[in-house]
Design brief:
heterodimer; A: about 140 residues; 5-stranded parallel beta sheet; globular; B: 13 helices; 2 strands; about 70% helix
Chain lengths: ~140, ~350
């Protein structure tokens, strides 16, 4: 990965719902309101996975969304990060034994950051972004 | 051999390099200022002014993918063409009291046609992406171009016509327009007419730059980025530079047409100081144009539907422009004693 300081300070985010109940999506929208203003740190919501650096996935992966999540992930240009928002993406949450579930997000695509909560507060999501930046800085240091 | 066709080649090459650097740096700085000002108007802190530079560097270190069913040479060529043609527009416009590099080779009519080329490059790139979203975006961009061209032409032609009636030679030359501010040439009715045309040009600017409320071709919420949907990495970085340079070019055009005054024509200054003062004043004027025609409109409005773009620009703004033109014609007729 070719990481740089500019990369850490300009994370463009694409939001993908893989079968969430919309609770986490509402919290993500709350996190980009003027009250929290993540654009301070260069974080921006974009409309196309090709423009994105970070994939925000909400919800457990339903059977129909498995291929689509895989394809959206493959469309993102390297280097890229995946953040999983909410308990459902980690374990399946209340839907853990549902008949149409293909498992948590980590079974389908590699996840870098987990933000637990049902639904996580906007502060938790922003803390997740801070953790992501810390991880990028560590990787940047390792690449020399 | 430094002269060819009677011009100093060294000066021209130096001018081109200087304008290219200026256009790119100023373009990114003004994009940053626009984002900061917008953020403050929305009660946010906003990104630092150098954020567009970071975004550009970030995009350069990303992979640049070409879709399987794209036409690679058009897809990769479009961003270059958009950036190059945006810079060429700047070469025909005065920067402060520096005369345009190519000033003697083209006039306003040429600038009007050049302004369509970056948009056409984006349309070509969109169609070559082989994505239905990009195709719809390209079609919308073409419709937007058709819509704003007529009001823009009215504003430019009204100015040139008023200058030619006043007996000024070569009225379409940008040098002539910059040297003879229309506000001094026209009478009271004409000034009302030009104020109306200034409003028209203020509204044409966001359409020309595909900014809110005329970002229908990019429309992130419905077209996922529209004609830019398949672009990533280096190509997207070039498009972001092109949009910055085009913002500077369009604002420079508005400055040259309606606000061409220089500090040095009011205050006696030594030549070097005069160039510096004029340049600083020019940057202030650019900021004013971008603030009123991009930032304020962007914060205050939602996106037009494509049908609204056509009705607003072809209908209301063209009508407003024609009313402005009528005022200018009346003013000229009064001045010439045709009607008492």
């Amino acid at each position: 990965m070719r990481l740089s300081r500019a990369f850490n300070r300009s994370l463009w985010v694409f939001h993908f719902n893989s079968g969430s109940c919309n609770g986490c999506d509402i919290e993500i929208v709350a996190a980009i309101t003027p009250r929290y203003d993540p654009e301070r740190f260069g974080v921006r919501l974009v409309g196309s996975p090709k423009h994105a650096d970070v994939l925000l996935v909400t919800g457990p992966v339903t059977h129909d969304m498995r291929d689509r999540l895989r394809r959206v992930y493959d469309q993102m240009a390297e280097p890229k990060l995946v953040m999983c928002i909410g308990t459902c993406g980690q374990s399946g949450g209340v839907f853990y034994d549902s008949y149409n579930l293909d498992g948590p997000v980590g079974d389908v695509i590699p996840v870098d950051i987990y933000v637990p909560g049902c639904a996580p507060r906007p502060e938790a999501i922003i803390d997740g972004v801070v953790k992501a930046i810390a991880k990028l800085e560590r990787l940047e240091g390792e690449q020399g | 051999m430094t002269t060819m066709f009677g011009i100093d080649m060294l000066a021209v090459v130096g001018g081109i390099v200087a304008i290219t650097v200026f256009g790119i740096v100023a373009g990114l700085v003004f994009l940053g200022i626009d984002r900061k000002v917008t953020a403050h108007m929305q009660a946010r802190i906003g990104p630092p002014i150098r954020q567009p530079f970071r975004d550009f560097l970030k995009l350069l270190c990303k992979d640049s993918s070409v879709p399987e069913n794209a036409i690679p040479w058009i897809f990769n060529g479009a961003p270059l063409l958009a950036l190059a043609s945006s810079i060429v527009i700047l070469l025909y416009l005065p920067i402060g009291s520096f005369l345009p590099v190519f000033g003697s080779y083209g006039d306003l009519i040429l600038v009007m046609y050049l302004l369509t080329i970056p948009a056409l490059a984006m349309v070509g790139g969109g169609f070559a992406s082989g994505s239905p979203y990009a195709t719809v975006g390209s079609q919308r961009e073409m419709v937007t171009m058709i819509s704003y061209e007529f009001p823009l032409a009215i504003a430019i032609i009204a100015i040139a016509w008023r200058l030619s009636v006043a007996g000024i030679a070569d009225p379409f030359s940008i040098g002539t327009i910059a040297a003879n501010p229309v506000w001094g040439v026209a009478g009271p009715l004409g000034i009302i007419g030009f104020l109306i045309l200034l409003v028209v040009l203020t509204w044409v600017t966001p359409a020309e730059l595909s900014r809110v409320p005329c970002d229908t071709p990019e429309a992130e919420t419905e077209l996922a980025g529209g004609l830019l949907v398949e672009y990533s990495g280096r190509n997207l970085a070039l498009f972001s530079l092109a949009s910055g340079v085009k913002t500077v070019a369009m604002a420079s055009l508005a400055v040259a047409l309606f606000l061409p005054w220089n500090v040095s024509s009011f205050v006696a200054l030594s030549p070097v100081v005069a160039y510096g003062a004029d340049f600083a004043f020019y940057l202030v004027k650019l900021f004013a144009v971008i603030f009123f025609s991009v930032s304020i409109i962007r914060v205050g409005m939602a996106r037009f539907r494509i049908t609204h773009v056509v009705s607003v620009y072809w209908g209301y703004l063209a009508g407003l422009g024609l009313i402005g033109l009528l005022f200018i014609v009346l003013d000229t007729a009064l001045g010439a004693g045709v009607i008492a």
